[in-house]
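Quick note —
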Amino acid sequence: MMTDNNLYTLFESRFPADLTETAFEGPEVSTFTFCDLQEKSAQMANLLTSLGAVTGDRVAVQTGKSVEAVILYLACLRAGLVYLPLNTAYKAAEIEYFLGDATPAVVICDPASLGAISAIANTCGVQEMLTLDENGTGSLTNRAAEQATKFETVARAADDLAAILYTSGTTGRSKGAMLTHDNLASNARTLHKHWGFTEGDVLLHALPIFHVHGLFVALHCALLNASKLIFLKKFDPAVIIANLPSSTVFMGVPTFYVRLLAEDGFTKEICQNMRLFTAGSAPLLEETFNAFEERTGHVILERYGMTEAGMITSNPYDGERKAGTVGFPLDNAVRIADEDGNILPDGEIGILEIKGPNVFKGYWQMPEKTAAEFRPDGYFITGDMTRKGEDGYYRIVGRSKDLIISGGYNVYPKEIESFIDEMPGVAESAVVGRPHPDFGEAVIAFVVPDGSVPGLKDEDVIAFIKEKLANFKVPKQVFIVDDLPRNTMGKVQKNQLRDRAVADQE
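Predicted structure written out below.
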């Protein structure tokens, strides 16, 4: 008989003895108990299976943040379905690719985008469409309410898929990272232990839930701990400040901390009940790290991870947390190698490679791409340039892959360039990142006209891209140029373009 490794079974085993205890509450959400999570996820699982979704089918979800959306995720786990969250900022051209690639059985979207997504879903062979808005209402919850409140959670093997998360592709098209029940469970257990979760912890949740950080890192720690979540629809400094006194843990991106520090009401007193602040998804500036400690007396715990592996390294919970570092490896093996896979001595900069139970199964329907990203001995090549210091702490010093991180989201220039290059009047383009005080990096584009459209302007390019790509990928500035700088091999010299973008800003 198969041992049940369903991630939901693990969460349920940690639920409190008294199921009437609060699981979710917040200023804009209804209060949900652990009993509600059990019963409502059973109803949604019953609905999904009644619609014909069978074990292993994908369920694509593009909805606003609500507790009902979390319950939908739990329902997918229970029914043995593969959860596929999509960034709410994605536009039709992006959605079309995801649905065509993942071929989900069921798609759940905001009622406002039902018309546009239905048209795409029909061409992709989607069986059923349901709606769910950010207030937790829609055909999903209406129809689930008619279902039985009991559901026998489907037993899953450790290696069975739990979720597919699309990560921007260096070649222009996104790749679906396949995450198993064991990938997610092992990482959740590791973080729960390393970050000292304990009875009575309350997690203040202000992150989006279509992303590893908010969906897996934050939610899983709370569910494993049977902790109450104060669930916020979005990040609002005033709302955070109001809820910190009744919380013990907060997880944020660097932008959150920059914005909190800009508030006079953000004081040491407000934070006195807090046990832990963590930062990730983008590098935390040393000045933010220092200013935060000075203001609150708390030292932010910075960690490092990626879609393909969850959290990989972390500064210590007990021990010195060092600015500009991502601490030590968690429960995975790590090594630093050159491009050919030769292991480098400590102190040298190379590409971080990782192996462990948290490392994903591969890219959905991309066996060649998967094979290219793993070494023969099973180590995954992260593409992140890393150095291990004499102190043993790891530092991410850059990226071998041409990646921009804006507001905590990964943006691959190639994807944006491929859309700009389709625009009438454009010969070619190059996209780079420029430091930005709020977002970490801003997307900047350089565009060479082909002369077929007279007077091509920067705002024309921005308007064209806005229709096709999520806002966080839209260039903040466009330079119309005669040509792009190239080396003797004809490769565009993006370092020169970055320097020009920075010089222009200054």
